[in-house]
Write a structure and sequence with these properties.
This protein folds into two domains: about 130 residues, Rossmann fold, CATH 3.40.50; about 210 residues, Dihydrodipicolinate Reductase, domain 2 (2-Layer Sandwich). About 30% of the residues lie in helices and about 25% in strands. It contains ten helices and 17 strands. Helix 1 crosses helix 9 and helix 5 packs antiparallel against helix 10. It binds nicotinamide-adenine-dinucleotide (NAD). The site of nicotinamide-adenine-dinucleotide has 22 residues, from helix 1.
């Protein structure tokens, strides 16, 4: 691929996340020496209002209600597929069968069987496919990842990874597809937030062997235009896991996903503690990460400001502060650079195999909650 080649992107599902991608492309100039330049050229969405939002995006030439149009369009290089979870399998399978490169939204299939079928199809296909997960691209998270990956933590003691918000604290919030098993999946909140939590541990090779899950459905009914509707997904999930750490010893790992976490707006965190050192980062304090050290017999947590030093370099000054939109920009920069063979040793977007590994954990969590026992993976 040559310098600044245009990559024409088609969005299937022009809702919350589809619009974010159009905005990401609009600020691509922030990236320094990226090998390609993405343009959203087409959008498929059933909803006319959703489609019409893209009239303001000057590069968009196709708006359609039929997603097959985008899969069949030879002028589209990459698809971003961001639709309700019950549609993942059909659309991802069609994209893979057509050999179309795509970034698929998590959870990458409504359940384990769907994820397995998708990953199998991708392995048979020439398509370059990755899974959306942007939060590990915060500079503080990147530094924690690098420290953990370097082995500096020593023998692992405990790892915690979580994502909590409270958009469902309001019992009067109307029902939507994310709050119903049929469209969101039986795994509920784990499908919504779990890939974000699994990405860094799995990238570090920390694959649990046993899962004990506490799942909670707190609000069981929500208003709908036709009266109260059944809200039958898990709101919160706490997964306690045994994880092989080498040398014949397991360490403890906790994955926490909550739609009802009073006091949390949208907090993603990662913490890893070893016998020699520890790291922790939270998007609640996005400009800093913390590092634990034993020095002269003293236990010290230090706070470090990593600055605006992202995985892909940007024109913004190193003292400027990083936010959610920057994380999305970085994720897309990573996906498109990796597709162009130019990612180098930078942090990559989540892989289909990682999505499948996460699904195995969520599936075991369902069985654990049902049987009230730990489940071996
Ligand atoms: N990475 C993240 O941070 C993040 C955040 C939120 C959601 N998501 C994921 O993104 C995906 C979409 O979520 P969202 O929040 O954008 O949802 P959304 O409801 O805002 O948007 C989904 C869009 O898909 C459209 N759609 C439904 N059926 C369709 C069909 N058959 N053909 C074409 N379009 C169709 C809907 O009309 C809607 O506009 C989900 O997989 C979700 O888990 C990711």
């Amino acid at each position: 691929m040559t310098g600044m080649e245009t990559v024409r992107i088609g969005i299937i599902g022009g809702g919350l996340m589809g619009r974010e991608l159009a905005a990401v492309c609009g600020r691509w100039l922030h990236l320094v020496d990226h090998p390609v330049k993405p343009e959203v050229v087409a959008v498929a969405d059933l909803n006319e209002g959703a489609r019409n939002w893209f009239n303001q995006v000057s590069t968009v030439t196709t708006l359609t209600s039929n997603w097959h149009d985008l899969i069949d369009d030879p002028n589209i290089d990459v698809l971003y597929i961001a639709v309700p979870h019950n549609l993942h399998e059909e659309i991802y399978l069609a994209a893979a069968a057509a050999g179309k490169d795509f970034l698929g939204e998590k959870p990458f299939g409504i359940d384990l069987a769907a994820a397995a079928a998708i990953v199998e199809a991708i392995e048979r296909s020439s398509a370059f496919v990755r899974v959306s997960s942007e939060l590990p691209f915060y500079p503080g998270a990147q530094r924690c990842f690098e420290i953990a990956q370097s082995g500096a933590l020593g023998e692992l003691v405990d790892v915690r990874s979580g994502f909590s918000h409270s958009s469902d604290l309001d019992r009067n919030k109307a029902i939507n597809w994310k709050r119903q098993q049929a469209t969101c999946g039986e795994i509920g909140v784990m499908g919504d937030l779990g890939m974000h939590v699994a990405h860094v541990p799995l990238r570090l090779g920390w694959v649990p062997s046993d899962v004990y899950a506490l799942l909670d459905n707190i609000v069981t009914e929500r208003p709908s235009p036709n009266g109260p509707a059944n809200c039958d997904t898990w709101d919160n999930a706490l997964l306690a896991m045994r994880t092989p750490g080498g040398a014949g010893r397991d360490f403890t790992m906790l994955w926490e996903t909550r739609r009802i976490a009073p006091g949390q707006m949208n907090t993603w965190y990662f913490e890893a503690l070893g016998m020699d050192a520890g790291v922790r980062f939270s998007t609640r304090t996005p400009a800093t990460y913390q590092q634990f050290a034993l020095r002269g017999g003293k236990q010290i947590w230090e706070e470090i400001q990593p600055g605006n030093i992202s995985a892909w370099p940007v024109i913004s000054a190193g003292i400027f502060e990083f936010g959610f939109a920057d994380a999305l920009l970085q994720m897309w920069a990573a996906y498109l650079a990796e597709r162009a063979g130019a990612l180098g040793d930078r942090f990559g977007t989540a892989t289909p195999q990682e999505a499948l590994a996460a699904h195995r954990v969520f599936d075991a969590a369902l069985r654990s909650a049902q049987s009230r026992t730990a489940i071996a993976l």
